[in-house]
Amino acid sequence: MAVTVEPVIKSGGISWAEFECTTQWKRLTPSQKLWFMAFCASGDAVFAARLAFHCRSEINTRNLARQTEKSPRVVVALNLYRGKTEREIFLEQLKTKIDACEDGSIAQAKNLALYARLAFDVATPDEPEEKDASKNPAEPTPRFSVGDVVIQRGVRFRATKVSAEGKVLAAEEIGNGL
Predict the structure, then answer these.
(1) By the 8 A CB rule, do 157 and 174 touch?
(2) Domain ranges of the chain
(3) Model confidence over 130-161: pLDDT tens digits?
């Protein structure tokens, strides 16, 4: 008679029974599955690697723990099991990028501004303010006026007729502009 033991694992997402039916779980190797269960239960990647891989040295155990924790299949499975949204996953990746940037660098400042905007809905100073068209209807500003000099393909023209939108409708050639 087979006995099924459901591990006591902290999950913010789906139940263990539901998770075992997912393709993300099925794609893990047997060692990765053992590591996954031990990691979810303990939160310690090195302890989980010790159980799953039986390494001969502590250095190998630590390396395997790091590799397994960063494995794309394991990351996807952990995110699904924990119930993380794509937004949360992106913000975590952005935090990692911010930590990797040199302190005070432009890249760090840009990533911090993006993080602030996404996580806390903070507007950055370089963002243009949105104008409400119903409050301030934009009046068309003419680009050209009658008498303006226009250079096109190296030839100078004087505008003789201009539309209300500021487009030149007629012009007379006044010579080479170069």
Answers:
(1) yes
(2) 16-82, 86-120, 141-178
(3) 555 455 555 555 577 888 887 777 788 788 88
For residue 151, give the amino acid letter.
I
Q: What DSSP state is assigned to residue 169?
A: E
pLDDT confidence of residue 27:
93
- Helical residues (DSSP H) of 16-166, grouped into ranges: 16-20, 23-26, 30-42, 45-53, 58-70, 72-82, 86-100, 106-120
pTM above 0.70, yes or no: no
| CB-based contact 33:51 (threshold 8 Å) | no
3-state SS class at 54: coil
**Contact partners, residue 28, CB within 8 Å, separation at least 6:** 36, 73, 74, 77
